[in-house]
Amino acid sequence: MIEPHVPAPPGSRPSWGGSGGSGGSDTPPSGGRGTAARLPVRPGVGRFLVLAGVFVCAACGLVYELELVALASYLIGDSVTQASVVLSVMVFAMGLGSLAAKRLRRFAAAGFGAVEAVLALVGGSSAMVLYAVFAWTGAWTGGWGGLGADGPRLLLVAFSLAIGVLIGAEVPLLMELIQRVRRQDAGGAVADLFAADYVGALVGGLAFPFVLLPFLGQLTGALLTGTVNAVVGAALVLGLFRRDMTRRARRLLLAANAAVLALLATATVLADDFERAARHAVYGQDVRVAVRTGAQEVILTGDTDGRPLALFLDGRLRVRADDERRRHEALVHPAMSGPHTRVLILGGGDGLALREVLRHPDVRRVDVVESDPGLTRLARHDPGLSALNEHAFGDARVRVVADDAFRRLRTTPTGAYDVVISDLPDPGVTAGTKFYSQEFYGLLRRVLAPGGRLVVHAGPVLAQPRTFWTVDATLRAAGLRTVPYRVGARDTGRAPGPDRTAAGTGRAPRDWGFLLASRGAPALRLDPAGPRPRTVTAGSLERDARATARTRIDGLPPSTLVHPRY
């Protein structure tokens, strides 16, 4: 936290009466910095109200920080990087704001009111402005390497910097105000102020993921937080310290807060329309389903007027109906060459990998472990998606488990499955990094029956070779032998709707990379007695495996839970 400036005690102890004039003149009130405030209430009540204001403002400030982190992670991907950038810039800016506020301590009441009005406007509107830039420019894709030429990323840094400066400016001004209410020793004042600040931060930090985000969403949640911030800041200053300000200052502050509240209220009313327009700008005009399941945002587009169905999860293109069969046939069928009566699918809530597994008639049981029951529910009941997966979830051999894959594997008996299919998000997505760790693959090795096979979707080979071969190194470090292969997308670089996706992928993948693994040397082949895939042949698998091997990067260390390499 920022070390506040503690004002020096005045030369003589002030009188604590609250009757010193009406404050109606246009000249500043007598007594500047360190002079007792002329309160309309008793000092004890005034002190309580200041600390209550500190509590609310701290809660709002932390919500702004978390909002920027969440939005940046959603739009750019790699939540660790986004959290590091936003929070480090904010903490640095808080120091700048604390230093800058030293010049405002003489006008602490008016200064604090102005800071809160600006903070409410900037923090409350930040999510909407950033999302608008993303939706109508699409310029957030890629890494931070091109930061110097990337205006939207600089805008994120600018918001972090501005909000941090304003939050940092609060502490010295509040310290001045609380000392004007009732002077006390510096240590006691700091303890009281920071206690209220930290408790408020706790409430804001818990309210964001458990109340604001699930019930209001990112945009409305930020706007409502700004509204609360403006109301509390204005009420504290205009209600408690109005006699410390000139009439002109009070009028300007009242007008500024009224304008801020009007803007935030208007934005809140229009938030739903704005979100629909922005969603159409991102995904095209044929958005058919848009739901937040609690775990992620699920978007379905197309499947009407000849447009192919496309499924987006948190902005990332997951399924494209006109090309998904190549991916899922390549993922499933090589692993099914051998015993496959008991199959485990990790992820795969869209039901498309399950569809390919069920094409093998001698499969007796399939367990699908999907952490998002909302996605599997959509895959069961949406006409377009259920038709694409051929109503796979209605098969009596299928059991769906809504659980975290890591937690589920820890309680799975040894040797429980002949085939394990890992159809999880790419390793570059921070939330899924643990599913590409040596520890996770150690659990998978344990649940494989003798002669069992594991197949892992390891991301695009051509676009991310280092990530792909790190997955390979991690599997081998877990005691598994691997065969790498890939399959190319049919229409390179083309995505449905706008030619971009959220969260850093930029375009539809050029290829999909897979790793077939087992305790012994796995053979990359198709089951001669099994069904014939439509898009994959034994010859194409062999050619793709040779092409994939030529991209190998040797000497990469494995990824672990405590040392992720992706």
TrEMBL record:
This is Polyamine aminopropyltransferase. Homodimer or homotetramer. GO terms for molecular function: spermidine synthase activity. Residues 262-519 form the PABS domain. Residues 1-12 have a biased composition (Pro residues). The keyword Membrane applies. Spermidine binds at H328, D350. The chain crosses the membrane at residues 48-76, 82-101, 113-134, 154-174, 195-216, 222-241, 253-271. S-methyl-5'-thioadenosine binds at Q296, E370, D404, A405. Keywords: Cell membrane, Membrane, Polyamine biosynthesis, Spermidine biosynthesis, Transferase, Transmembrane, Transmembrane helix. It is a multi-pass membrane protein. Catalyzes the irreversible transfer of a propylamine group from the amino donor S-adenosylmethioninamine (decarboxy-AdoMet) to putrescine (1,4-diaminobutane) to yield spermidine. The active site is at D423. Residues 1-36, 489-508 are annotated as: Disordered. It is found in: Cell membrane. It is an enzyme of class 2 (transferase). It catalyses: S-adenosyl 3-(methylsulfanyl)propylamine + putrescine = S-methyl-5'-thioadenosine + spermidine + H(+).
